[in-house]
Amino acid sequence: MGFGKFAAIIALLVSVGVAAWPAVTQTSEVHGVTVAVTPGNLEADSSVWDFAIAFSALGKRLEDEVLDDVVLVGDGVRVKPLAWEGEPTGLVGHRAGVLKFVAIHPRPKELHLEMTRPGETRPRVFTFVFGEWSA
Prior knowledge:
The structure is a single chain. The chain has one domain: Immunoglobulin-like (Sandwich). 13% of the residues lie in helices and 47% in strands. It has helices at 3-15, 66-69; strands spanning 26-30, 33-39, 48-62, 70-74, 77-79, 83-86, 91-102, 110-115, 124-129. The strands form two sheets. Strands 1-2-3-7-6 form a five-stranded antiparallel β-sheet, covered by helices on one side. Strands 5-4-8-9 form a four-stranded antiparallel β-sheet. The chain is globular. The termini are far apart. Residues 13-22 have low confidence and may be disordered.
């Protein structure tokens, strides 16, 4: 899948309910697999936070068990996902969806989404900073 189609998937996810703030998509490419993470609702008063996640891997089967392989970390608190609303494991080439977490209160100034992928020795870490916006 080309980058244009990959970007279109992220744009679609954002348009169907992932209100992107802070609107920063982070990408990571390891062993030919690109993962893009876009934060959605991370408001300080929300009970559930979400992230749009898209995987792209030309001709490779995506076997990620997203609910088992991802953790959200903030101020030392580690939170496993509540739900994955997206495509199932085992697809070839691409996979996308929205990952939901119980919000951490008070909201930390910095969040880390850690993803441990099959066959990779280190987790991928996506960092989102709120600075003075933290409540």
